[in-house]
Amino acid sequence: MTDAPFIEIEDLYFSRGDHEIFRGVNMTIPRGKVTAIMGPSGTGKTTLLKLIGGQLTPESGRILIDGQDVHKLSRKALFTLRKRMGMLFQSGALFSDLDVFENVAFPLRVHTDLPDTMVRDLVLLKLQAVGLRGARHLTPAELSGGMARRVALARAVALDPELILYDEPFVGQDPISMGVLVQLIKRLNQALQLTSVVVSHDIKETLSIADYLYLIADGQVVAHGTPQTLDANQDPRVSQFIHGEPDGPVPFHYPAEAFYRDILGEAPATQIGS
Amino acid sequence: MQSKFSNSAARITRLGRRGCDLMEALGRAGVFLFQSAIGLPSREGWRLWLHQMHFVGVLSIAIVLVSGLFIGMVLALQGYTILVDFGAEQALGQMVALSLLRELAPVVAALLFAGRAGSALTAEIGLMKATEQLTSMEMIGVDPLRRVVAPRLWAGFVSLPILTVGFSVVGIWGGYLVGVEWLGVFEGSYWSNMQANVTFINDIGNGMIKSAVFALVVTWIAVFQGYDLVPTSEGISRATTRTVVYSSLAVLGLDFVLTAIMFGGL
Lengths: 274, 266
Fold this sequence. Notes:
By secondary structure, chain A is of the alpha/beta class. Chain A contains ten helices and ten strands. The N and C termini of chain A lie far apart (53 Å). Chain A has helices at residues 45-52, 75-82, 100-111, 116-129, 145-156, 175-192, 203-209, 227-231, 236-242, 259-263, and strands at 7-16, 19-29, 34-38, 60-65, 68-69, 85-88, 163-167, 195-200, 212-217, 220-225. Chain B is an all-alpha fold. Chain B has helices at 2-37, 43-57, 61-83, 92-130, 133-140, 144-182, 187-197, 200-228, 233-263. The model of chain B has no long low-confidence stretch (mean pLDDT 91). Chain A binds chain B through residues 50, 53, 55, 75, 79-80, 82-83, 85-87, 89-91, 93-96, 106-107, 109-111, 152, 155, 165, and chain B through 44, 128, 131-133, 135-143, 147.
């Protein structure tokens, strides 16, 4: 295994309509480690994962995965590269017309010529790893949110990828499922020597599994380092986020006209910025 | 004066933008069709296609055949009341068959198909998009255009012409029931006039060409609207409506153009 970073993001710019999402983002994601990308909601964390996966194209800048520029690949080469990646979606994104077993078997069936007995063994191994071997006959509609995410995780690692992207893995989970997912991500990373990218805003859980952190806000990386260095960071933007303070550089109030003027009916009806 | 000028300038800008949006959407739809339809299906592709043939084609049989029966019966009833005034009720079989084969079967079957199968295709693909199933498929390294769209596109293209044949057959039989069994037109003249005046290439062939064109257009609109929609509940409902409206208009418009080329001496 080389020491070269697995993903390199260089001077990335991306906008949706008039809204600039990234303004010159630079990141390097080390091989075999868990890297977390954190930031307040709406900073484009999921967008960043879609850019890494080649589903969106940046306006400028480039993203290299294992030395290959994702956005310069042909459609075929991109799909080949994606076989080396797994992605865990926030919603699980299980195929609703297939049961749990077939969902996990899907990548194996489409990308390998393995005989059915071997596919079965592999699927049962993956389901055993996420603790859902007994749920193999259920349909996605019969699963709870946490179970769906675990099945999706089993599917994401079905082909033993080198890279796995987690999109908000802890959102909307009860404490038990959250603990299970934290353990799973940690264990999978250690056992399979994966490179993991976790996009999240759940600070406690993310700090407990990440080897390296990037904090993005206002379209840029505002801080990066190990969990310890970020915890001690004095930058008010970093400290507000890491310590969960309700007000600070990221204001509690959406920009608006002065409150008393609004109450007295003096503010224009469409006023937003002030 | 100033505001009048700026108003019309804004209107022209809006019009221009809409034109650009329309051209862009047409371009996207063209690339989409090309990428979905090109290439030979794998063994798995055939299995998916067969599955869609059931969903798109077999499940549409009932509505298409029942409609065909009623349309044939109405045609015979209306035709008889007019023809009998001229003592030409023997030509009833020919009238029913030609109306169905040339016009009504391809057009009405396509309209029913757009409402039954087209809207379902849009909603299904749209829901797959909204629940990120298409995105996750892409990330697994499977092209959703080949796996999800292509089998549905081909199933629609193949099944509508077959349904149209069924529509015509049942319609002609419905005409027979009303004309011969009920109104008392001579059975021999019903069938022999039909046999003598319906030609295979001109009438049946042209009807089938129409049906194939409608099949392509309706299925293309349905799968594209599903794939291109805004992935929200409102987006899905709007796209489903658009599928039915655009498909119906396209079928009726194209029918005129094709009829003019085939039978209008153009």
